[in-house]
Amino acid sequence: MSSKEVKAALKSARDAIRNKEYKEALKHCKAVLKQEKNNYNAWVFIGLAAAELEQPDQARGAYKKAIELEPNQLLAWQGLANLYEKPNQTDVKGDLADVYQKLLQLYESGDKQKWCDVCNKLVELYHQEKKYLEVAETWQKLIRMKEEEGAEKTELHQLWKKMIQLLKDSTRNQDNKTGQLLLTAFEHALLSADPVPGEDHQNLYKDFIRCLSEFPHEAARLEKACHDMMALYPTMVYPLEVLCLHFVQSGTLSENALHCFSRLLEMDANSGPGIIGFGIKCLKENKYKEAVKSLTEGLQKTNQCPAAWLYLAEAQMKIHEHRNAVLSCNQALEALGTPEGPNFRWKNLALQLKAETLVKIADADAAEEAIKALEQIADGSSDPVVLALRGQAYLNKGSMDQASKISQELLLSHPHLAEAHALEGFIHYSQKNYEQAEKSFLNAIERKAGTAEYHQYLGLTYWFMSVETKKDKGKALTQFLKAAKLDSYLGCAFRYLGNYYRDIAGDKSRARGCYKKAFELDETDEESGTAAVNLSVELGDMDTALSILNEVTEKARPGRAKWAWLHRGLYYLRTGQPSQAVADLQAALRADPKDSNCWESLGEAYLNRGSYSTALKSFRKASELNPGLVYSIYRAAALEQILGKYENAIATYQEILKTTEDYVPALKG
Questions:
Q1: Exposed (0-12), middle (13-18) or buried (19+): which is 151, by Cβ within 10 Å?
Q2: Distance from C-alpha of 669 to C-alpha of 665, rounded to nearest angstrom
Q3: Residue 468: how many other CB atoms lie within 10 Å
Q4: What is the CB neighbour count within 10 angstroms for residue 259?
């Protein structure tokens, strides 16, 4: 076949393809290849015809042969791209990306529009594959091309915004380079926005700041962006809120941070971040109750702030709300999720604070939970303070051997650590080895004199060591006073001060004040509440006694605060108010249905009210629970007599006289 015939055959093949006669086209191409096996156009036409006849393998082979012959010719690359773009072509995205890359090279110096079309396709392909770095780099090339062609500012602005859109969902998995390209896109979009200030520009700025806040290492850039936006939009609270949360999460409380908190609250008194900031300020100023109030309120509005939950837990711990502090630590850990970078430090802090709080709760279940929390702290096994906490948790759990082992190891490896000596003291105290406990707590105080708990336990050691140390003003009393001074929320210290003033010094008024303070700090402290009420009665101050009882009973849930209901019921009984006495004594029995004395008092209240049948049932219940309550048995007999049940009454009187022959009321009955 001559060259003229080859040209004619190729023309026939082209015409056949145009007429969709693909098999005919293949015949012409094969005829050409018999004569010229390296004919580029023939291989391209075979690829095209085979693709249309749904013979993808033959088409791919033909295009690749053509490319091998002429690697810088467009036709075969275009054909291969069209083939790979067909819906039935799977697992070819990597190959298609390579084809697009080659087409970009070939179009670069020629058809700019086609270059842009291919560039868009390549970016879309990378985006589907979540190859965000490649998306960013390729889109930047497109913008550069447009800039070189002198594109309008408006078009460039839209292109930068499109780049942001393409990358915005990827911030959590981005490598540093992709992140930087996204931030660059934001900066260019902001510079090219028009008008400024304006709605589009404002929304872009918000998105930029939101994006920056997801990059822990861009703190300086975030602060600058917030300040710049505040300058442009002085009435908007958003940048100030982000800045305040940034300061909270960074854990630094500079003058600048405090100024931002104040300014935010001036602009919006209900702003969650502003209220949180104020709460942290209160915490740093040792205003713990105000801190708890503000942090709780702020977190109701802005709850995804791990550091704020931790500050709340710290404030709650300061006022000994230990169970609430554990809940706050759990909220912090939940908000942190699986932390990385700076948040990893917050996780360790949350776990340690949770363990400290659980150790203070001091029951076996809390101890078990504390041990689990400590096990999750990174490098916790090499931190002596964490080890001392673990020792205390084992002690609370009752695992004395493990607690002692940790104590001995710590004293050898860290003899200057206060916590090591304190742990030894706690162990001796729990074993009633008071002389050894005294030495340990004195050693702990020597190393860390400002810890109220050490003084409290040294005071308790003296209290139980001997009568002499209990009475010695320089021993127990001094330590309880120091503990109370160092921690004005330490209810236990005030309770023992009350014990000292009541039992040793005989100062009822001062004792009552201490018990009242202890009970105000811890409403579950029944011993202090009861003592405050009893001393108020002894001092003739019924108003104070009743105010304490009223406050407790108003807050009490059903089945709780038996002591308060009982005390107030007895007061009403003594003062001739039987109906009120009945109501309160019934409430006390809901808390403890097996208290025989309470049933006896209820019977007395019903009797005074004239409810004889109910009174009889109450006295019988009291004597069933405690057969030794002769008064209840006598009262039951007397009521049977009043109700005309004479035989029953005689039998009951005789029963009393069998055990107590000279019980005069029964003889009279």
A1: middle
A2: 6
A3: 9
A4: 10
* Whether the Cβ atoms of residue 516 and residue 526 lie closer than 8 Å to each other: no
How many of the other CB atoms lie within 10 Å of CB of 498? 27
Whether the pTM exceeds 0.85: the reply is: no
Lowest mean pLDDT among 283-297, 449-463, 554-568: 554-568
Q: Using alpha carbons, select from 519, 546, 515, 548 the residue that is nearest to residue 531.
A: 515
**Omega before residue 234 within 30° of 0, cis:** no
The b-or-e profile of 547-575 (16+ CB within 10 A means b, else e) is: ebbeebbeebeeeebbbbbbbbbbbbbee
Answer whether the bond into residue 415 is a cis peptide, omega within 30°.
no
Angle at 134 between CA 132 and CA 137, to 5 degrees: 110
In the numeric block, the tokens 């940048």 are attached to 239
How many Cβ atoms are within 10 Å of 624's Cβ, its own excluded?
12
**CA 162 from centre of chain:** 36
d(CA 240, CA 226): 7
* Calpha distance 323→317 (Å, rounded): 9
Q: Give the number of other Cβ atoms within 10 Å of residue 96's Cβ.
A: 18
Q: What is the pLDDT of residues 110-155, one digit of tens each?
A: 888 999 999 999 999 999 999 999 999 999 999 999 998 899 999 9
Q: What is the mean pLDDT of residues 451-457?
A: 97
Amino acid, single-letter form, for residue 38: N
- A 10 A CB-CB count for 506 gives 9
